[in-house]
Amino acid sequence: MAVSIWQRKRDLVYLIFFLTHIPIMFCVDLTPLYPVALKPAFMTDLRKWYITTYRDQFFSSPPAWFDTYIWLEALYHVPLSFWAVPALLRDDPKVPLHLLVFALEAGLTTLTCITDYLSWSGYSNNEKIELGKLYVPYLALAVFMGLDMFQRLSQGISRSSKTTKGDKSEELVDHDRTRVRPPRGRLIFHCGCVRRLAQKTCFTSNRLSSSDAIKKTSFLTALFSCFGSNKAPAPAPKISGPRCFRHESTGDHAIPLRAFVSTPPPYVQPQRP
User: Which ranges carry the EXPERA domain (predicted)?
Assistant: First the structure.
């Protein structure tokens, strides 16, 4: 729900400005654009009083570029002012954008007029000060409005960017949670196969040459590193064979049985007495 206009002090000031700006435009500023037959008499009298009181050359003998400002006021200020009044009341989110553009345009045109009338000859300082009482507050309000609207837009963009970053981080977390991973049982099965292969290779390394054993050990080290372990395969456990067996060549009973060997060593069973 929108905050009440009475609680938004700056918007209340802008609302009062536009409520007074609309009748001033129609009764004073835009009267040169009206047809003479349709121009009310009180508008002509009001304009004459203003010229007599302030000696404003922009209304008595305006320069060529001032007509452009009059048309700009008719084509831009009038529709914007009628839009701004209800927009400020309902706290429209587009208010900062439109009023920032209005403040820049109004401030630039007013500054041009101030710079020009300060160069008029034949005017005393008091007369220029009286003109300044009309133009300088208008310029000050335009500058204040522009800074205020710029700050509002900056804060809105900052909040929007933070919200966007938060949404992206949540999407990344959700994507990481839903990422497909290999089944745990399959991974354990592969690790078990690799470890059995390592044990078999270590058990049979005594039957290989030293260069072949080094190659197999390096291969297994690289293979284990793929599964998160850089440790070399464990040495072969010493499995002692039954004492009732002897080796055929040496007759040594201490030679252990070799596990995972496809071709068993030439063990023979001793003859019974």
Answer: 10-146
* Paired tokens of 148: 């205020």
C-alpha 136/C-alpha 129 separation (Å) is: 10
Q: In angstroms, rounded to a whole number, what is the distance separating the alpha carbons of residues 184 and 200?
A: 24
Can you tell me the distance from the alpha carbon of 14 to that of 34, in angstroms, rounded to the nearest whole number? 28
Q: What is the DSSP string of 11-71?
A: HHHHHHHHHHHHHHIIIIITGGGS-GGG--HHHHHHHHHHHHHH--HHHHS--HHHHHHHH
C-alpha distances (whole Å) from 66 to each of 52, 57, 60, 73, 97 are: 19, 10, 12, 11, 26
pLDDT tens for each residue of 72-89: 999 999 999 999 999 999
DSSP type of residue 246: E
Dihedral in degrees, nearest 10, Cα atoms 155, 160, 163, 164 = -140
SS (H, E, C) 166-181: HHHHHHHHHHHHCCCC
Q: Which two tokens stand for residue 80?
A: 């914007």
The predicted structure's pLDDT at residue 224:
54
C-alpha span between 57 and 164 (Å, rounded): 54
Cβ neighbours, 10 Å, residue 139: 18
Nearest to residue 194, comparing CAs of 238, 159, 229, 168? 229
pTM, full prediction: 0.60
